[in-house]
Amino acid sequence: PKAAPTDVRIRVLNSTAIALTWTRVHLDTIQGQLKEYRAYFWRDSSLLKNLWVSKKRQFVSFPGDRNRGTVSRLFPYSNYKLEMVVTNGRGDGPRSETKEFPTPEGVPSSPRYLRIRQPNLEIINLEWDHPEHPNGIITGYTLRYQPFNGTRTGRTVVEHLSPNQTRFTLQRSDPISRYRFVLRARTQVGEGEALVEESPALLDE
């Protein structure tokens, strides 16, 4: 093809998807059969400082003679660049002008790990690591825990912890029970994926 799509417009739908519209090329510039419109895009940077990102180019195909489409599976809270082409049986035509757009914050992935240590019957020490994909500015952690003993469960306690906190010490109220811990990171959008761990059963002395 000899011409590129023009008037490429981007509307952000959510933290991981955008809607695209463009002006189609004249069919006499295609020099063959129009196969598809194609959007090339790559993550240029994260909006979080010092977070390394892969700038690998990806593309989404929109088969046929159309003028709109959706790009999804983007990373939240990032700067993206995008170019469009039209293709025929021989390959890509020239690229449109490069468009830049940011994606808004999303919810975080789960914390990388949650380690549980029981130095004695009175306390349980928790330690965790930040999420691999914060997807925004971490505003804190939510820790929910409840004791259980066989089929009996106690009431759930909720702790709201600060964003840089990675440790918590629980004073046990019941040395016989095990505890179930559910830990999530938060951004201003909401709570992310949960990491669930249970305290080990106490060994017989």
UniProtKB/TrEMBL annotation:
SMART domains: FN3
Phylogenetic placement of the source organism: Eukaryota, Metazoa, Chordata, Craniata, Vertebrata
Any matching Pfam family: fn3
UniProt cross-references to CDD domains, sorted A to Z: FN3 (cd00063)
Domain Fibronectin type-III: start-end pairs: 4-106, 110-205
Region of interest called Disordered, as start-end residue ranges on this chain: 90-110
Protein's recorded name: NFASC protein
CC per GO annotation: membrane
Biased composition (Basic and acidic residues): 92-102
Cited InterPro entries: FN3_dom (IPR003961), FN3_sf (IPR036116), Ig-like_fold (IPR013783), RTP_Phos/Ushers (IPR050713)
Domain of life, per lineage: Eukaryota
Organism: Leiothrix lutea (Red-billed leiothrix)
